[in-house]
Amino acid sequence: QICTNPEDLDLGVAMMDGYAGWAPGRDKDTQFIAMETRWSGIRITPRITLGGTFDAVIKRPDGLWILDFKTTKYSVTSWTFRDLQASAYVYAARQMYGPEVRGLIFRFLLKKAPLTYKDLILKNGSVTQRKNLKSMTTYAEYHRALAVATLKELASNDFIFA
């Protein structure tokens, strides 16, 4: 299905830009083995078989993992420990790839554009210290905010640069 709503398109682009700024620091030791892998016919009882699609199969230094992307408006993720999909996907992945599959990683994408460096600088010129910043912005935007705030502070104190 093709999205035609301009606001949804803008949000999607902002989410992907935010992810692109966030992921390199997290995925530096990750090798993507397969993307969008459809599977079926994994038997769990004589009458019940499983089927689904892995968003990604990844290899990290500690083994193989299934990576599952979720979009959400909230960062509450406590339900993941009891998620039937996670258990079924890990079972299926171990049938397909062997016992070296360690588990499933949920990667949550907030349905919200990440805060820009301008959003992070408070009226008094300092950078916000909110506890949940990791889920609200990217490292690049946070570091840019620190640099801009520092330069503004230096400029306001009449420092002479030679």
Shape: elongated
> Which residue ranges are poorly predicted, with pLDDT under 50 across at least 5 consecutive positions?
none
- Fold-level CATH name of the largest domain: Trna Endonuclease, Chain: A, domain 1
**What is the chain-wise order of helices and strands?**
HEEEHEHH
* β-strand amount: 25-35%
Major sheet size, sense and barrel closure: 4 strands, mixed
Number of helices: 4
Count of domains: 2
Q: Mean pLDDT score, rounded?
A: 80
End-to-end Cα distance: 58 Å
Number of E-state strands: 4
Just name the CATH architecture of the largest domain.
3-Layer(aba) Sandwich
**Major β-sheet strand ordering:** 1-2-3-4
Oligomer: single chain
CATH hierarchy, class of the largest domain: Alpha Beta
If you compute it from the alpha carbons, what radius of gyration comes out, rounded to the nearest whole angstrom? 21 Å
Structural class by sheet pairing and helices: alpha+beta
Percent range for helical residues? 25-40%
What can be said about this structure in brief?
With 162 residues, the protein is of the alpha+beta class. It has helices at residues 6-26, 84-97, 117-120, 139-156, and strands at 31-43, 49-60, 63-72, 101-110.
What report would you give on this structure?
- With 162 residues, this protein is an alpha+beta fold.
- The protein folds into two domains: 6-110, Trna Endonuclease, Chain: A, domain 1, CATH 3.40.1350; 117-156.
- Helices cover 35% and strands 28% of the residues.
- It contains four helices and four strands; from the N terminus they run αβββαβαα.
- The chain has helices spanning 6-26, 84-97, 117-120, 139-156; strands at residues 31-43, 49-60, 63-72, 101-110.
- The chain has a four-stranded mixed sheet with strand order 1-2-3-4, with helices on one face.
- Helix 2 links the parallel strand 3 and strand 4.
- The mean pLDDT is 80.
